[in-house]
What we know:
Blueprint: H1 4-8, H2 38-43, H3 49-54, H4 65-68, E1 79-82, E2 90-93, E3 96-97, H5 99-103, H6 108-111, E4 115-120, E5 129-132, H7 133-150, E6 158-163, H8 168-179, E7 182-187, H9 192-202, E8 206-210, E9 212-215, E10 218-221, H10 223-235, E11 242-246, E12 264-266, H11 267-270, E13 284-285, E14 289-295, E15 303-308, H12 310-323, E16 331-334, H13 341-353, E17 357-361, H14 372-380, E18 384-387, H15 389-398, E19 412-416, H16 422-432, E20 438-442, E21 476-479, E22 494-498, E23 508-509, H17 513-520, E24 538-546, E25 552-557, E26 561-564, E27 567-570, H18 571-578, E28 584-594, E29 598-607, H19 616-630, E30 639-642, H20 656-663, H21 678-688, H22 700-704
Parallel strand pairs: 4-17, 6-7, 6-8, 7-14, 8-11, 11-12, 16-17, 16-18, 18-19, 19-20, 29-30
Antiparallel strand pairs: 1-2, 3-13, 4-5, 9-10, 14-15, 15-23, 21-22, 22-24, 24-25, 26-27, 28-29
Bound molecules: adenosine-5'-monophosphate-propyl ester (PRX).
Residues 295, 341-342, 416-419, 441-446, 467, 542, 554, 556-557, 563, 567-568 line the site of adenosine-5'-monophosphate-propyl ester.
Amino acid sequence: MATPRQKLGTKEPKASQTLSEAQIAVHWKEEQYYYPSKKFIAQANLKDPALVKKFSEKNFPACFDHYASALDWDKKWHKTLDTSNPPFWKWFVGGKLNACYNCVDRHLAKYKNKAAIIFVPEPEGETTTVITYQELYKRVNELAAVLGDFAGLKTGDRVTIHMPMIPELPITMLACARLGIVHSVVFGGFSGEACGLRAADSGSRVLIYADGYWRNGKWVDHKAAAEIAVKTAEKEGQRIDKVLVWQRYPGKYSSETPMVKERDHFINDVVKAYHGQTVQPVSQDAEAPLFLMYTSGTTGRPKGCQHRTGGYLAYVTGTAKYYQDIHPEDVYWCMADIGWITGHSYIVYGPLALAATSVLYEGVPQYPDVGRPWRIAERLDVNIFHTSPTAIRMLRKAGLDEPRKYNYHFKHMTTVGEPIEPEVWQWYYDVVGKGEAAIVDTWWQTETGGFLCTTKPALDPMKPGSAGPPALGIYPVIWDEEGREVKAGSNLAGNICIRNPWPGIMQTIWGDPQRFVSQYYKKYNKNAQSKDWRDWPYYAADGAMIAKDGYYRILGRVDDVINVAGHRLGTKEVESACLTIPEIAEAAVVPAVDEVKGRVPVVFISLKPGASAEETRAIQDKVTTAIETMIGKIARPKEIHMVPDMPKTRSGKIMRRVLAAIENHMDTGDITTLANPDVVEQIRVLVQGHEEGKLQEGPEDIKRFGQES
Length: 709
Ligand code: PRX
């Protein structure tokens, strides 16, 4: 039988791919298992093996009706999955529901006086705000009235929300969902320019902002970004009619940026006219888009992942219930930012659909000291905690024994976003979890809506460093570049794919369906005409291995994306920012290993002839400024190297793989076929100094970096 790769038959394997994944043996020590406590198991949502069986492949896709049944539908679906137009799947066809109703209204009967959101401001002297489900209902309704009546927004319109971690952010998202307005939340730390580009791409004519917020003890004048966002969007041909601004301190404007007459409005003032108003939730088709979330890919511009209402909400509700073990009685705290997919799925939609109490913290975990998260946990009696390996590494480095000083008890903890080193996992388990909490290491992506691999906390043992088995109803496979299956226990790495559709998968890329197909489905598609989902595996662009016990270990991105502190950064985006500087001829961005953040970007630039190398410092500063302006501080490079030339193939392609190897003191491999092999040694000296140090083995993702470009 022909392999998928041969069947595609359009491309010759690239030179850099001749070293197949199948030939890269990975050696890693098998870790021991850890078992959840009897106490945890006794109260767990998922402890019935019969339910697990229900999700076996022979019951696909009907197994996912179980998740959808956890929601309230205005009209029940008549077909679970429609595969007639692959890979544009339709879930819960014919069904109608409203996401806001499911996260708010339906809880009023039983839980109206229960805390829905607890907001913890960064300044420790400021009091915590509790928003009950009743109050959330009121506030969401009033804002929905503002959006519909005052801003003139209708079902299907897009709105860009550039806000920090304040309760008005989930309130705004839910008010949009109530009316079927597609929200596009841009991470608050992104620059105004990044927000403007996303607003233009989504065709938003309304921006929603906050005037400012606290971060690491400093007041950030966030409204300043709105001015840049509006200008950028307009440059891109998208007019912004209204900028609606929440005041962080209601009644007081805390930004130095003037409000623009007619265009800018304080929501806190406008909403007064809508006091007590209610707005009917719009009954939405299951396939109606709920939101866009922009993420970085292999091209210069971020892409808008479009998520559907019914399938997405069903998937995050089911996975939050079974993997995070959320019950309505729990106090759940996810330390991620709502501006990322983790926050959408597992701060807002999943927990609120389950009537949980979701804690929202404004600031950084280390402010004013690394005891802060544990003080919050103690005070609010948080029992489910969720964070990233980067945060765990940082908290461990700066406060090894800090959690022991506080009297809190987690029953469950999640980690997400990056591979976690077994020793970091061990600290999380022993010290943060006090040996009492079950841990799930959840592997997934912006595109996938919810978890793809994770242990079932009461049923599967934990294994440090492994995400674990696939989530219910997910059937992964690892293939090498030639389409051969990488078998369990083979100690080989390959590309992890998901063989089947699932309700949480994105619908398409906003405005670019072709890219959706080419990016995620083309690589291992067996037959472009096929209507059978089995021919359309999802390509995740992550390297992975599977151990004998069926546990997956995720090794990291195999494309031009760098995972910085658990956040995706497209190297092409950073390179485009560098190339806006007139003196720069070429730019290449590669990942470097960082003890806390996992990976950080390092920039290589070469100058145009005639540009003076004496101005190195000035040009480096310009590079940093350009990156911070166009993307945000999150993308700030660790180093900027000015090189005489880039290592290139004979066809002129920059060999980023070679630069990544030099930066990380790894073997550069065979460079004799390069057009300019001599430059490699010059760059090595520039980066590492004259003395050749010992070469490192280096992590898998850096070994593979640049293969796809
Ligand atoms: O490389 C994988 C890594 O994060 C990428 C997805 O990033 P993003 O879309 O920003 O979503 C992050 C939150 C879901 C993946 O392609 N990743 C995510 N979770 C894990 C992980 N790597 C290893 N282990 C994980 N648990």
